[in-house]
Design a protein that fits this description.
The chain is mostly beta strands and about 150 residues long. It has a single domain, classed as Roll (Pnp Oxidase, Chain A), CATH 2.30.110. It has one helix and twelve strands. A hairpin with a 2-residue loop joins strand 2 and strand 3. The N and C termini lie close together (about 10 Å). The mean pLDDT is about 90.
Length: about 150
Amino acid sequence: MPGVKTYNPSRVVVVMNGFPMSGFADGTFVHITMQNDGVTSQVGADGEIARAINTDRRCTITITLQQTSPANDFLSGMFSMDVMTCGGLLGPLLIQDLCGETIFQSSKAWVVKPADVEFGKEITNRAWQIETAPPSVYVVGGNAISAN
């Protein structure tokens, strides 16, 4: 009989430049994507296949926060300092699922631009776009915790 797997969104850790983030939005709150395909291929006229390994491993991370999250202040300040110091504020980024095997780590990450802002009757969200240098660790894993 297969085991039961468990995911707990409160056990997903996001730390940028030493700041542990909290106040994530309901729904998807972390989205990681590589900016380019890692491997591309072409087929010649005779059917021979050639592959190319892309060395550009930069990633784009979208972190979605509630408008009340203190991480909005941190990310806004990080962006402002980066612009004022001409690129002097890059920091490490760690994203890890403590209940599973997924981990992302890059030594250099920066805020691309301030989040869009909207106000309404209810709490709204702030989606922050972060770009990274090639990650030193990027493992897309499953869920390690199971009950048999």
